[in-house]
Amino acid sequence: MNTSESVKNEQVNRFDNHSLSNTHDSVKKKIESPITLNSHLSQSSKNSHAIEFSNVNIGYPGHLVLQNLNFIIKEGEYVGIIGPNGSGKTTLLKTLLHLIKPIAGTIQIYGKPIDNRIRNSIGYVPQSSPIPREFPLSVKEAVLMGRYGQIGLFHRPKKIDHEMVHNALIQVHLHEFANRPIGHLSGGEQQKILIARALARNPKILLLDEPTSALDFEMTRSVFSLVDELHKKYGLTILMVHHNVNLIRKHCDRLFVLDQMIRFDGHPTDPRVEQAISIAYNLFEP
Amino acid sequence: MSGVLEFFQNLQYAYLQRALFSTIIVGIVCGLIGVFIILKGMSFLGAGIAHSCFAGGALAILLGIDPFFTIFLFGEATAMLIGYINERDSSSQNDTAVGIMFSLSMALAILFVGLNKEYNTNIQALLFGNALLITVENFIRLVIISVFVVILFFLVKKELLFIIFDESMAKISGIPVKILNYLFVGMIAAIITISLRAIGAILVFAMIVTPAAAAYQWTYKVNFMLFLSALFGSISSFFGMMFSFLFDLPTGSTIVLIVTSIFGVSFIFSPKRRIPTFITAKDQLEHKKECRYCRDLNNIEDCPYCQDGDFDSIKYETAKVVSSLNPLQGGKK
């Protein structure tokens, strides 16, 4: 077995260990072995620090967006990120995705600097946007796209990739819709499919950027309960950017209030949160 | 009938064989590439590149050189410039760059034609094409470039579809989005270059957009859409050639008329504009659990959300009342 195949098998094993309880028996029989981690993470994963920022400044030419970021996110933490528009929430996620390089400081994922390879251990769920009803793409194909980074250019998806897609759809309880055109699903279902696409990458860290921005309350609640379930069942490290302060506080176990810097970093029930929010959102009376 | 037989009898002549196979190949390749062009929402791109190719051809005629290389050069340069402008200026729409290059290339083409003091029939051939005039050399070029483009297209098909569906996510996944975008417009330019001789600069645009648009009416599966688009392109080319031979009509326009008719029929009979029939009773039961509007109604056909995509509260309330009055009304089987 070559290295890439063994890495893929290991990825399935790890993912499956989390998901066996819900996986079909056929898939269950195929993959039953102890947890092993991505080879490039195996050593560092002993370190419980999933994400570590040290003196990080982030910005664009002539414009500093975030400064002096110092924090450690432990493996399995659920971090909510709030802040006004332009406070740097999305910039922070883009930096973690290696799309923006920090101006100063160091960022480590499982004790290693971010690079394209380590990025494969991060799943990303973008803001919800409507998918054209007639777009010729099935749910299964949309989720499979999450694997393309691992499959590689000029290569075709293998059986193992299809199994990962099937597993990911089971995690979001939409495996029955696998062959349905994605445009035919409701907004909430489409957003769950985007979560499944992120899960198909077999991530250890899940980043969600306002995943319910275009959804009504019921669908928002449904997406939140799915994220809670993924967090509890599979121990994923989760960073979720959200505008609804009250909602995110109910679900996360650590909260960041951003406003060009971290105004607050602590438990969401901490009474100091209100003050930090007031400062960040400029809510003080003149 | 005798005319049709005469057409097949005349296929023994090499010039007619070349013309027929050239147009069929053009139909297939343009059909394939066209699918991704319309999914990307860049239908106008084909017109922009085709007209720049015309400018390249007009320059070659002015200089008295083989037009293939200038056509290829102009097509590729325009495609790359459009790609560059779109990449650098994300605020402008895809069609803005195409519009700029379209008008520039038309200006250049008119300039080159104007500088050429003698009337040249090749200009007309470039604009409207003439498959019967395709030489052995042009045919070989057409086959080689088509095979190359089709192989390349299928090698990067999954990544191109990912970019069309969600470009930022493709970038995050480590797909070389920038390179593939350039590669895609480069492929379009190559296809237009080889198609120019057969159907001309004006009509090649139709061969790129129309078969794909017709295929889009029939399916929700991209692979089947590619197949249908190539099929519509090749059928139009075949019958276009045959009718142009039988009734002494210009080949390019006949092909385009046929492919447009196929689009018209597809548009009218498209299953996408009818009540979906793919939903089985089991699917519907599952769907009812998820769709809060369907849950209140007896029949998925009454659900304004499922049928229209956009939720209309008045339609919903009306359907709910009707549904409560007819509790025994069954769902669609």
Oligomer: heterodimer
Low-confidence stretches of chain A: 1-46
**The CATH architecture of the largest domain in chain B:** Orthogonal Bundle
CATH-assigned homologous superfamily of the largest domain in chain B: ABC transporter involved in vitamin B12 uptake, BtuC
Order of helices and strands of chain A: HHHEEEHEEHEHHHHEHEHEEH
Which two protein chains have the largest interface (Cβ within 8 Å of the partner's Cβ), and how many residues from each?
A: A-B, 37 and 35 residues
**Sheet with the most strands of chain A?**
6 strands, mixed
> How would you state the average pLDDT of chain B, rounded?
83
Any overview of this molecule?
The complex is a heterodimer of chains A (286) and B (333). Chain A has 286 residues and is of the alpha/beta class. Chain A is 38% helix and 21% strand. Chain B is mostly helical and 333 residues long. Chain B folds into two domains: 272 residues, ABC transporter involved in vitamin B12 uptake, BtuC (Orthogonal Bundle), CATH 1.10.3470.10; 45 residues, no CATH class. Chain B contains 16 helices and no strands. The C terminus of chain B is likely disordered. The chains are: A alpha/beta (286), B mainly alpha (333). At the A-B interface, helix 7 and helix 9 of A face helix 8, helix 9, helix 11 and helix 13 of B.
